[in-house]
Structure formats: C-alpha cells, structure tokens
Design brief:
This protein has 162 residues and is mostly helical. It has helices spanning 6-26, 32-43, 45-48, 95-98, 105-112, 119-138, 143-159, and strands at residues 56-58, 67-69, 76-79, 86-88. The longest helix has 21 residues, at 6-26. 53% of the residues lie in helices and 8% in strands. It contains 7 helices and 4 strands.
Length: 162
C-alpha cells in the first residue's frame, strides 16, 4: 500500500492496536493506564506527528541485538537483520535507542540530527505501540515495561500541554 504521508499509515496501525487492547483492559486482562495513555496519544496524533519530515528507509527491528558495535569503544558500526523495512518518518524507530543509555545512541542521534519538537514524546509513543503490537502477535508481553513507558508518556503530555 502507498500513503501520501506518514500519519495516514500510522493512524490505522495505532487504531488497530487500540482496538485489540481496549476490550482486554475492560476485562482486567491488560493495564488500563496503557490504554488510557495510548488513547490520548491517538487523539493527539495530528499534533504529535505534525512535524514529520521526508520519509526515510527504516530498518524495522532496530534494537541492541541487531546493532553492531566496536567492542572496545562501543561505537556504532552497523546493523543487521531487518525485520520490517519500510519508508517511515525519520524518528520512527529511534525509540529502541532510549532503552540502552549506556550506548548513548539516542543522545548522539539527537546531537547530530535536527530532531522535531516532539521527538521524545514520539519515541515513547512509538515504543509503546510497538510493545502492544508484539503483545498482539505473541499473546504476551511485559505489562510492567508498558506501564513504565506509559508513565513516561504522561510526563511528556504535561510537558507539551496535551
């Protein structure tokens, strides 16, 4: 499928995740806080994703086991194992970098790239929707981690008056 812009692709992706977890939360089988936060994110997608730039080719599985680093300096040298190559907004998959602060990839990225006003909020939202997606695919996930990310997003909402 082809879309005119990033939000036209991401909105239905996010909605499908919400449609899956909302009834689970209502029956006590999924954290209500996560659903509450993702609903608010979904309602504000037009604002949060308003400054998405030109699409870039993304890796689709950008996390530490797929990153190649120099073992002496821990400097990034490449990545392997693309899972879901696609054209996406340039800040789409950087959320995985936040989870490994010792590699300093996220802060280094933000130093080198002209990031958007909502980069930290988007990174967390993309992270949480991704976790929900994996939960949907696998039928299991870390509710503790999802709740932790949801709390981080709530702080970002306050920071941006959302």
């Amino acid at each position: 499928m082809q879309f005119d812009n990033w939000i036209d692709w991401y909105r239905p992706f996010a909605k499908a995740r919400l449609d899956h977890i909302t009834p689970l939360a209502e029956s006590g089988k999924f954290p209500k806080l996560v659903v509450e936060v993702l609903k608010k994110a979904y309602e504000n997608l037009d604002i949060i994703l308003s400054d998405c730039g030109k699409p870039t080719l993304t890796h689709g599985d950008y996390w530490v086991p797929n990153l190649l680093v120099d073992k002496k300096t821990l400097k990034f040298v490449g990545c392997v194992d693309p899972f879901n190559l696609m054209w996406a907004e340039s800040e789409y998959e950087i959320f995985a970098m936040i989870l490994y602060p010792h590699l300093k990839l996220y802060n280094e990225y933000k130093k080198r790239v002209n990031v958007s006003k909502f980069v930290d909020l988007k990174a967390r939202i993309y992270s949480l929707f991704s976790e929900v997606y994996w939960f949907e695919l696998l039928g299991k996930g870390s509710f503790e981690f999802m709740t932790w990310v949801a709390k981080k997003i709530k702080k970002q909402f306050k920071k941006h008056n959302l």
